[in-house]
């Protein structure tokens, strides 16, 4: 029972981390129809930027605040300077963009390795979040509880912004009918750039959050982007709520498989993916229309 | 107000508009008539920059807008109600209006949301409903209310009566006549010949992507030949 509780918390922690990535990925897809395989690159960039900041300032909190700014800027730049012109030139099918962003994902890993080498780095856990806390018969690391809390907080904040604000209404409208949004006098390209930047920033934020528990290394974004894709497919592409529950589903499956069925560890989530594609291709929450 | 000169528009290789010219004067209501596939909707879409014309020129308030992006054209004061009404399924009535109001910041004649609720009291009752929960008539009211909130210098309507019950069409006609009396110029595409001729001062009849008749509404109602050949009424 204690073992299960421990694994449950580990699963929850992993789920929340993947959710931070999946949220941006699904919003970008829902709104812009871009399958952004480079999303993992922003995770890496955020982690490295955070690591540099933490080394220079010695502050985890500075890393957490400043780290995501790098992926925000590069994400906004990618959308405005590379992807948008492609749409204008008619080279923006799903395959075009998937290939381009796939290339960017590996190019980023290579570039990072060129500058920082292939060593593994880490951001030290801040003192206030270090140590363990005793609960229900287990000692659980405070930092992992912090990750769970941050994930839940971001999920709540995002859903409030999307459901209750005018910005959120514009996003919902854009997912539903982009053309009509422009016909209201709104420059949707600006909305796209901001959303792309925010999605990339969230991925970078996840990178900093992950740095004290996972290693910071050049390839770190490649594995996690695959898991993130499983999440958005399971949850329903373009659906924020779906990406939350999808993340829980995938995170739990992965963790529980590692704990109780180690032989299946490597492919458990892919079984989930394939099963979902066959029996419910629209995902858990995807219906006919997508809702961000 | 609006001048359209020799517009040529393509969908892929198909040459849909083959030199359409028309104009809308201040305070004038102009109807675009013709059978399905005549190019009426495409004409409106080309004016709005949604399907940009390959050749020709569109001038609005003296400014050439042919190559401008849609959102800039709209900000100059063109409000558009598309054929499918363009209501967002997951956005509430109030949010629809607030979005349109936010997007028309800086326009001198911009209206409050309350103005739309006065014109369409039914929308006030449904202010918290999602677009997808509205009836066809309510969606049309919302689409028109949303178009009016900017205080437009030109209202462009694509088949507003389509799919509506006769009582709702009567209400629609009342509202559009009121808009016309306020002096807002209207460019309307309409299959409902009687509604169109009651509203419009001037009529263009389109067939196969070009203008076959242009004249005052009375001239069309007298010209049985044109009506039979191009409109089947």
Task: Write a brief caption for the model.
The complex is a heterodimer of chains A (292) and B (233). Chain A has 292 residues and is mainly α. Chain A has helices at residues 2-32, 39-57, 60-66, 69-88, 94-116, 142-164, 166-176, 178-182, 188-210, 220-235, 240-260, 268-279; strands spanning 132-135, 138-141.
Provide the descriptors you would attach to this structure in a database record:
heterodimer, A: 292 residues, mainly alpha, ABC transporter involved in vitamin B12 uptake, BtuC, globular, B: 233 residues, alpha/beta, Rossmann fold, six-stranded mixed sheet, four-stranded antiparallel sheet, 10 helices
Walk me through the structure.
The complex is a heterodimer of chains A (292) and B (233). Chain A has a single domain, classed as ABC transporter involved in vitamin B12 uptake, BtuC, CATH 1.10.3470. Chain A contains twelve helices and two strands, in the order H-H-H-H-H-E-E-H-H-H-H-H-H-H. In chain A, helix 1 packs parallel to helix 6, helix 2 packs parallel to helix 5 and helix 6 packs across helix 7. Chain A is globular. Chain A starts with a helix and ends in a 13-residue tail after the last helix. The relative contact order of chain A is 0.21. The C terminus of chain A is likely disordered. Chain B has a domain of 118 residues: P-loop containing nucleotide triphosphate hydrolases (Rossmann fold), CATH 3.40.50. In chain B, the strands form two sheets. A six-stranded mixed sheet of chain B has the order 6-7-8-3-9-10, with helices on both faces. In chain B, strands 2-1-4-5 form a four-stranded antiparallel sheet, covered by helices on one side. In chain B, strand 1 and strand 2 form a beta hairpin. Chain B is globular, with a radius of gyration of 17 Å. The model of chain B has no long low-confidence stretch (mean pLDDT 92). At the A-B interface, helix 7 and helix 8 of A face helix 2 and helix 3 of B.
């Amino acid at each position: 029972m204690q073992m299960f509780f421990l694994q449950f918390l580990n699963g929850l922690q992993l789920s929340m981390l993947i959710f931070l990535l999946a949220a941006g990925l699904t919003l970008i897809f829902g709104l812009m129809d871009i399958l952004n395989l480079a999303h993992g690159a922003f995770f890496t960039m955020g982690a490295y930027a955070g690591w540099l900041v933490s080394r220079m300032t010695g502050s985890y909190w500075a890393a957490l605040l400043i780290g995501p700014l790098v992926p925000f800027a590069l994400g906004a730049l990618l959308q405005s300077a590379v992807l948008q012109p492609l749409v204008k030139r008619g080279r923006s099918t799903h395959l075009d963009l998937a290939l381009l962003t796939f290339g960017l994902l590996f190019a980023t890993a290579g570039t990072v390795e060129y500058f920082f080498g292939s060593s593994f780095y880490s951001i030290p856990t801040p003192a206030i979040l270090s140590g363990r806390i005793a609960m229900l018969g287990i000692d659980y690391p405070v930092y992992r509880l912090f990750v769970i809390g941050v994930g839940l907080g971001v999920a709540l904040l995002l859903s409030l912004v999307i459901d209750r604000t005018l910005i959120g209404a514009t996003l919902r409208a854009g997912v539903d009918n982009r053309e009509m949004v422009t016909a209201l006098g709104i420059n949707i390209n600006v909305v796209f750039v901001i959303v792309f930047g925010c999605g990339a920033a969230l991925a970078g934020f996840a990178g900093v959050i992950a740095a004290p528990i996972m290693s910071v290394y050049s390839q770190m974004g490649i594995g996690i982007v695959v898991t993130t894709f499983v999440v958005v497919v399971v949850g329903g592409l373009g659906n924020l709520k779906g990406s939350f529950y999808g993340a829980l589903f995938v995170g739990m499956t992965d963790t529980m498989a590692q704990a109780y069925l180690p032989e299946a560890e490597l492919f458990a989530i892919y079984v989930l993916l394939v099963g979902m594609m066959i029996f419910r291709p629209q995902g858990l929450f995807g219906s006919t229309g997508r809702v961000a | 107000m609006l001048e359209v000169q020799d517009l040529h528009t393509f969908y892929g290789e198909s040459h849909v508009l083959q030199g359409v010219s028309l104009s809308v004067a201040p305070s004038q209501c102009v109807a675009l008539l013709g059978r399905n596939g005549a190019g009426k909707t495409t004409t409106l879409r080309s004016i709005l920059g949604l399907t940009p014309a390959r050749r020709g020129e569109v001038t609005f308030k003296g400014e050439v807008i042919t190559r401008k992006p849609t959102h800039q054209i709209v900000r100059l004061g063109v409000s558009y109600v598309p054929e499918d009404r363009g209501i967002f399924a997951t956005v509430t009535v109030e949010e629809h209006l607030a979005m349109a109001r936010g997007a028309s910041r800086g326009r001198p004649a911009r209206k409050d949301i309350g103005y739309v609720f006065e014109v369409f009291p039914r929308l006030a009752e449904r202010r918290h409903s999602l677009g997808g929960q509205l009836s066809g008539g309510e969606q049309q009211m919302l689409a028109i209310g949303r178009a009016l909130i900017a205080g437009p210098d030109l209202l462009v309507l694509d088949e507003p009566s389509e799919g509506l019950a006769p009582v709702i069409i009567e209400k629609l006609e009342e509202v559009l006549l009121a808009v016309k009396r306020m002096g807002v110029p209207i460019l309307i595409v309409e299959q409902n010949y009687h509604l169109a001729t009651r509203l419009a001062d001037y009529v263009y009849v389109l067939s196969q992507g070009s203008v076959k008749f242009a004249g005052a509404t009375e001239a069309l109602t007298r010209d049985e030949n044109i009506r039979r050949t191009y409109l089947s009424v």
